[in-house]
Amino acid sequence: MSLTYHHFEQLDSTNAYLVRMQSECDIRNWVVSANEQTAGKGMGSNSWESEAGKNLTFSLAVDMNYLPAEKQFLLSKAVPLGIIDVLDNILPNDKLSIKWPNDIFYESRKLAGILINSTIKANMMDLSIIGIGLNVNQMQFQDWPTHPISMKMITGKDYELQPLLEQIAEHILVKAEQLKSHPTIIEQDYLKRLFRYRTWAKYEVAGKTIRLFLKGIDSFGRLQLFDKENVPYCFDIKEIKFIL
């Protein structure tokens, strides 16, 4: 099925727009983008900083009714891999990684963020609305803890947004489809690109800084680590903070 593109000069949030439209029509394979979001969202209660017309801020609605609800984290692995497939041809790919759960980093700086809202029917996934913010041509950011970076800051080049958007959306759809028949490949590729995978680093847990070894991800998408005494740790989203 081909993608249908809808572009707006301004929206509160591309994710919120698709959620509203979901009750009015079939939004499967819709891609909604905006030059400016007045209430763009990141993970949790975080906002998303984006200079109007400089970056990609868009959402994609994908039918995931073939994926068991208990395996929904597979989509959080597939989506950043789809984006990286495109970025690998533009940026130095040895410096691109996926910071758990699904941010895209260039070295130790945040290049893109992903927010996925999914509905579930019985024990299967239904529709997933995938929101993406990719820093493209913006040159200045607030110094957030993730130290944002853009494609232009890396290469010094300007990029046309619409062709880039279409490439990324298509690649995300390919990766989502791959979950039907080759989920193991997605899992393996995700670990290959996982930020700090099988390395020691500092993390903040319950207000304390501890040094941990990142072992991997469990089937529910939780981060698995252990300390110098070989004591295992398992964290869900928002239970651990990466110290960058």
Short description:
25% of the residues lie in helices and 34% in strands. The protein is of the alpha+beta class.
* Computed structural class: alpha+beta
Number of strands: 12
CATH topology name of the largest domain, in short, is: BirA Bifunctional Protein, domain 2
Gyration radius (Cα, Å) is 18 Å
Task: Please explain how this structure is put together.
- This protein is globular.
- The chain is built from five helices and twelve strands.
- A hairpin with a 2-residue loop joins β5 (103-106) and β6.
- It has helices at residues 14-21, 73-87, 151-155, 161-181, 183-193, and strands spanning 4-11, 30-37, 56-63, 96-99, 103-106, 109-121, 124-134, 200-205, 208-217, 223-226, 232-235, 241-242.
- It is α+β, with helices and mostly antiparallel strands and 244 residues long.
- α2 packs across α4, α2 crosses α5 (183-193) and α4 (161-181) crosses α5.
- The chain has two domains: 4-193, Bira Bifunctional Protein, Domain 2 (BirA Bifunctional Protein, domain 2); 200-242, SH3 type barrels (Roll).
- The strands form two sheets. It has a seven-stranded mixed sheet, with helices on both faces.
